[in-house]
Amino acid sequence: VQGTGGSSAVSKCSAAARGYIQDRFLRLLVGRRRRRAPLVHRGYYIRARAVDHCVQDFLLKTQSHPRTQILSLGAGFDSLYFRLKDMGLLHHTVVYEVDFPNVACQKATLIKRIKELSALVEDIGGEGLGVITFSGEDYKLLGVDLSELSELERALEEAGLDNEIPTLFIAEVVLTYMENSRSDALIQWAAEHFSQACFLLYEQIHPEDPFGCVMQQHFSQLNSALHSLAQYPDCEAQQRRFFEKGWSECSVMDMNEFFTHCTPEDEQQRVQALEPFDEYEEWHLKCSHYFVLTASKGMESSWTPLLSNMTVPHCDGPVRMAGSITAVVCATHSEISGLRRYGHHSVLIKPNVILTTGGFGEEDGQHCRMRNFHVLVKHADYWKAGCVKKENPDKRWDERLYHTVSCLSSSLALVVGGRTSPSSAGLGMLWLKFPETPNASDPGDVTVELVSLQPAAEPAALRWRHSTTEVIFKGKKPGKSGNSCRYAEVYKLQNIWGSPVQTIPVEGPVPESRHSHSACSWKGGVLIAGGLGAVEQPLGSVFFLRELEHGFQWQTVETHPPLIPRYSHTAHVHDGKLLLVGGVWFHSSSVPGITVIDLMTGLCLDYAINVEHLEWPLMLHNHSSVFLPNEKELLLIGGGGNCFSFGTHLNPEPVSLSLSNILTSH
């Protein structure tokens, strides 16, 4: 448990060094330095932002009181006192910090040794008496095991804690490491023994979904299991816990809600611009698995810092499911691990052959950007997997992620865009050419030739997390003539087959810009659903780019009930129905399964995916899917990602979903 505190301090220090949080004291308290990934920076930013938001609100609301106090439980090497003191916010407030005796002793030694710290807090002596390791006029550092409540109470009384003045308790990922009976007792003790009290809690939730399973496994491997999750798995359970333990007011929200509703828009934009970032799914999943809670009792005025700006709409209500679909592992014959990946693309290039390209995953026992192409060849009752021969391998592939592949004929596919790292420019276009043979019986039968497109067509493709869709214009399909292959963007259609680039007129209100959406060909036009908008919020809109005689026109597709906003899903159209597969949404009570939208009536139904037959968490974001219309079968390939600081999870095997029941029942 002490190790998790040290790791958190290093991560906060790294976030401060990159400008996410303003804290010049962390580097003095944290002995070791290590640069963390942008995803970790964002995760610790929102944690620090939430705590500071609530602490400063408490100080503001109680500034008319002659004396107040803050008690930080499991404070570790946190710099809260020094930041508040430096900002001039502790005129009448004493800060008490409690942690394990050896942690408190280490911190006390640092404070005495480092002039920048000792200059802010005058050591008045008294340490060495009992458990007090450092004592200043407005700062007391105590070494006590929080799980020993009677010992904690005695130590705080000795240090001068006053139970009759406004008191803020802070527990930042602390109580969950204690047995529930002990943490419950501490919460109840705080409510019963202090006449004017506030409590700030930041912890994990949602242990049972795929991300939650990886999160729990991580902490278990560190020998620091999260005890509270089984009994208090969500925001509502945590809120009931505090009411039952004697608190009269309690507000709670997950960190997606906090970032959206309690962080000013200009601050959101500042953070989003600090460094190249392309792990939106894991950022939102991390935020949906942590919450901030504030509770109070006996305060003269209501203390609700989470609701001070506006009433926050909860996204946590249950999603109504129309049924469930059972997931089963595909029977495959394979000696390769190349289908464990994310950010790739899979496409049906022949009736029984699926080609998978690009992404980041596991190859030859290492995590890397994927160099090889892989195929799945369907046999009677299994799929055979293998690598593809590239007839002219060179650097034109560039090991790309988040590209698209559109199969335009039995021997030709178009690759558009993609990237290597988020800080590099987008990649261009390529043709993939393969033999005309109608079928293949073995992966070795499939060969792919890479052919570069003309440079004049390149600028349209320098993007990633986009969509590319085949449409019909003036009755012509791609491949029929030299100027009929269309590239669909949210704003315009461009000719990319030849030179020069031709703009095609588009009418109607233009949908807001987005990425990580889905796009499917339908009736000669394009259906676009969901995506992540310009302010990093999931979108729930569906649009149809309809073919007209002289161009195209945007039309809104109304759904009822409204489509739950999502992104990073895949999509297919079958028999007048739009199928949305997986993705990420902010309804943290569940994960997206299969959504079926009837394009004639607008009826929108959600189906859960039953994973009881899988022995591993099924993460349905950054995946690919292929629909086999004759069998009404959906193949899910790859998916997953870097689960914050908990490790990388990649779905190990392709999964099959039979959609016969839901497609025939509509």
From TrEMBL:
Gene Ontology BP annotations: tRNA methylation; wybutosine biosynthetic process
Reaction equations catalysed: 7-[(3S)-(3-amino-3-methoxycarbonyl)propyl]wyosine(37) in tRNA(Phe) + S-adenosyl-L-methionine + CO2 = wybutosine(37) in tRNA(Phe) + S-adenosyl-L-homocysteine + 2 H(+); 7-[(3S)-3-amino-3-carboxypropyl]wyosine(37) in tRNA(Phe) + S-adenosyl-L-methionine = 7-[(3S)-(3-amino-3-methoxycarbonyl)propyl]wyosine(37) in tRNA(Phe) + S-adenosyl-L-homocysteine
Domain of life of the native organism: Eukaryota
Coiled coil: none
Pfam short name (any one): LCM
EC number: 2.1.1.290, 2.3.1.231
GO molecular function, one term: tRNA methyltransferase activity
InterPro entries referenced in this protein's UniProt entry, alphabetically: Gal_Oxase/kelch_b-propeller (IPR011043), Kelch-typ_b-propeller (IPR015915), Ppm1/Ppm2/Tcmp (IPR007213), SAM-dependent_MTases_sf (IPR029063)
Name of the top EC class for this enzyme: transferase
Pathway the protein acts in: tRNA modification; wybutosine-tRNA(Phe) biosynthesis
Gene3D superfamilies: Kelch-type beta propeller, Vaccinia Virus protein VP39
Alphabetical keyword list: Methyltransferase, S-adenosyl-L-methionine, Transferase, tRNA processing
Keyword Oxidoreductase: no
Family to which the UniProt record says this protein belongs: Belongs to the methyltransferase superfamily. LCMT family.
Protein name: tRNA wybutosine-synthesizing protein 4
Species: Eudyptula minor (Little blue penguin)
